[in-house]
Automatic annotation (TrEMBL):
Species name: Natrinema zhouii
Domain FAD-binding: 5-310
Superkingdom, taxonomy of origin: Archaea
Protein name: NAD(P)/FAD-dependent oxidoreductase
GO MF annotation terms: FAD binding
Length: 417
């Protein structure tokens, strides 16, 4: 077993595995260290709703056989209204998808070490030169990449990220059969991915139903442990309690039964990414979080960041005598802000503002969307300031004032700490 590689990647999720795919395609020696055991990979506790669009499938060469259901539309719901947008997409079997990425890169020469929990960077002269895993085992590389998501053992110890609790999103999802997919009074969810904004179900977050064929669907919710959650949440309610409440009160679930072995949990952070790299090191995927305000699109963001990191590593390693210093890895920052999360600041602000709104405002938003062209929503989701302004009404002035005060309080808190 080697102990030195061109690139060492911590984490075999979509970001890490895609980065490995791109690097081995360029001829580099790559090792991926994954915490989970190979025969359990990926565990049910580490999965995604796995909704994505054809642009991601085509850009990364993802085969049809990891798709549970192709969809024709995206539905947004509020407590009493809904909006339907024609947009083709795909609901992935996330476990098959992750295993495909590992196998594809492995077939091309990437080495994977499972049961390998990365614990810390190995430092020499102030630079990372390798990582330790499983306590005392070591591996060295020219470039190290952290793709471990919120755990971020390398990025945190290198002071690259500070994933704050108030920005921590937790999620739970079950797969069900027996769902009334076309219930009178609701949108038809056949071949659809539905996202619902409703604080009674997901205070400070959203819930979803992703159709996976016939009467089956992925059903889940996610909320952020922030001020909005504190305002709308119920005392002593856990995320499991909120999902149970939704299942008990929504008539679409009256005859629904959970599918055995199809329960998933996960977490992420919704905040500005901060630093992305330093000498010999890059952070990718959910370690430097990004998402679209409405569609989420976490899979695509992770894959894009893995590709950007691979291109950056290649730009340095292919030249003899050029060291992977922070300055020479700066192209990753450029690619990330251009390709992974353009307009990152305005998209984050829209996301935070969206979850502060009341249920009544969500109903108004759905009615507004029915009057606007689809381009407005698409542009707003990409952080276009003019499009976001088109979604704001006079009644939002108190909400905007509250949001501004919240941001000021956060900024002051950061300065004082």
């Amino acid at each position: 077993m080697n102990d030195r590689y061109d690139v060492v990647i911590a984490g075999a999720g979509p970001a890490g595995a895609q980065c490995a795919r791109d690097l081995v395609a360029r001829g580099y020696d790559v090792v991926v260290l994954e915490t989970e055991a190979e025969d359990e990979f990926p565990r049910q506790s580490n999965k995604s709703t796995a909704g994505t669009f054809h642009s991601m499938m085509a850009a990364f060469g993802i085969p049809d056989d990891v798709v549970m259901q192709y969809t024709d539309s995206v539905v947004l719901e509020s407590p009493t209204e809904h909006y339907v947008r024609d947009q083709t997409g795909a609901v992935l079997e996330f476990a098959d998808f992750k295993r495909y990425l590992v196998k594809d890169s492995r077939d091309d020469g990437a080495e994977y070490r499972f049961d390998a929990r990365v614990t810390a960077p190995i430092m020499e002269n102030g630079e990372i030169v390798g990582v330790t895993y499983n306590g005392d085992e070591e591996v060295y590389g020219d470039i190290m990449i952290d793709a471990t998501g919120p755990s971020a053992p390398l990025a945190k110890k290198l002071d690259i990220v500070d994933l704050e609790r108030e920005n921590h999103a937790i999620g739970i999802e079950y797969e069900f059969e027996g769902i009334d997919i076309d219930r009178p009074g609701f949108a038809d969810l056949h071949d659809a991915m539905m996202l619902r904004l409703d604080h009674n179900i997901a205070p400070g977050g959203y819930s979803w139903i992703f159709h996976t064929g016939e009467d089956t669907a992925k059903v889940g919710l996610c909320y952020i442990q922030n001020g909005s959650h504190d305002q709308y949440s119920r005392d002593n309610f856990t995320i499991d309690d909120y999902l149970s409440h939704w299942l008990e009160t929504d008539p679409r679930f009256r005859d629904a039964e959970p599918i055995e072995g199809k329960q998933h949990r996960g977490s992420a952070h919704i905040q500005a990414p901060g630093k992305l790299h330093t000498d010999r090191f890059m952070a990718i995927g959910d370690t430097v979080p990004s998402l679209d305000p409405l569609w989420g699109e976490g899979i695509n963001k992770c894959m894009q960041s893995g590709r950007a990191a691979a291109a950056t590593a290649d730009s340095v390693l292919k030249h003899d005598g050029i060291e992977p210093t922070a300055e020479n890895l700066e192209v990753y920052d450029t690619l990330w802000h251009r390709d992974v999360a353009p307009n990152a600041k305005s998209r984050l602000l829209m996301t935070q503002l969206l979850y502060l709104a009341s249920n009544e405002r969500y109903d108004t938003l759905m009615r507004d969307l029915q009057q606007l062209d689809d381009d407005t929503l698409a542009k707003a989701n990409k952080g276009d300031v003019r499009a976001i302004a088109n979604l704001i009404e006079l009644e939002d002035v108190p909400l905007l004032a509250r949001f501004a005060k919240q941001q000021l309080d956060l900024d002051l808190g950061s300065m004082l700490s």
